[in-house]
Amino acid sequence: TILVKNYDKRDVFVIKFDARSLYEYAAEIEGNGKTEDTYPYFRDVRQFRNSLLLELPNGNFADTMAKCFFFDAYQFHFYTALKNSTDTRLAAIAEKSLKEVTYHLRFSSEWVVRLGDGTDESKQKMQNAIAEHWEYAGELFSPSDIEAEMIEKGIAPNIADLKDAWQKTIADTIEEATISFPLSNEKKNVSDPEVPVLSILDLGIVRDVKINADESIEILITPTYSGCPAMQMIAMNVKMEMFAQGIKNVIVTEVLSPAWTTDWMTENGKRKLNEYGIASPQNKSNEYISIEDLIVPCPICKSKNTTVISEFGSTACKSLYRCNDCLEPFDYFK
């Protein structure tokens, strides 16, 4: 069961995949007095297993829709393949379940498109959600020992073989949503030279990835401010990382419009900043608050009793503050 709250948190939807038929079949096979209720209600907590993707916090509505979309697409291709199982009972269950699974995929994919192709705020939330949850989806295609045995006997589909079809479903929807396809984990190794704890994805400076007619890979990046001296180093590091992965024909293009804002940073990136000792952005780009009135918590002791020392800190994208409680100076990422 996946609980999904809508954006204004007025309604709660409970989306259930029809597992009753599978529980009934499992009880018949195992015997020993087991019933369909044994598995959902009477198992020990440690006997439940979920993929990490489904264990993640719901977050905002875009986060929840991204999780649902990734899993729904997997379920759709899994049940489609399961119809060819050598176990006729499982094949029949798959045939029956596919209609409901198809509906779930349509529901979540439509929300991805609606948010991605909506307002600037919804687009950025959806882009961040896709990027942050992408790395957890790979686990869906790694079979356990039991699954591997069932695959070998033709009972279950080879889930590793479903990945290409799944990725195409994801890519088609992301293109319709006018957001960028997630970068691979390798590109997440490219850090900001000035704040090495942050990757370029944490910063949100990667705007798009394109495959050109000549089959070159073009990566579009936006500086945190015009003239940022780190951009040349970032571009070089991106190329080096891609070369290390065997991708030689790489173009890194700097895009100045629309201008970068701290709204593009991921929540994970903001958390990393605070843990690193740099206060993360406190307001939205469309909310003007003078630097004198802005309340910036100390990343060290969490006190809100802080004072701005200088509008510019160690770099142009930071301000210098001092905590009046722990007396430590710290940078604030503007």
From TrEMBL:
Query: Where do the PaaD zinc beta ribbon domain residues begin and end?
Result: 292-334
State the superkingdom.
Answer: Eukaryota
Q: Which Pfam families match?
A: FeS_assembly_P, PaaA_PaaC, Zn_ribbon_PaaD
Supply one GO BP term: phenylacetate catabolic process
Q: Which residues cross the membrane?
A: none
Alphabetical list of Gene3D superfamilies matching this protein: 1.20.1260.10, Fe-S cluster assembly (FSCA)
Instruction: Give the matching SUPFAM superfamilies.
Output: Fe-S cluster assembly (FSCA) domain-like, Ferritin-like
Q: Which InterPro entries match?
A: Aromatic_CoA_ox/epox, Ferritin-like, Ferritin-like_SF, FSCA_dom_sf, MIP18-like, PaaA_PaaC, PaaC, PaaD-like
Q: Where is the MIP18 family-like domain?
A: 188-241
Q: Which residues form the signal peptide?
A: none
Cellular component (GO) terms are: cytosol
Q: Which NCBIfam families match?
A: PA_CoA_Oxy3, PA_CoA_Oxy4
Name the PANTHER family on file. Answer: 1,2-PHENYLACETYL-COA EPOXIDASE, SUBUNIT C (PTHR30458:SF0), PHENYLACETIC ACID DEGRADATION PROTEIN PAA (PTHR30458)
What is this protein identified as?
Phenylacetate-CoA oxygenase subunit PaaJ
Annotated organism of origin: Darwinula stevensoni
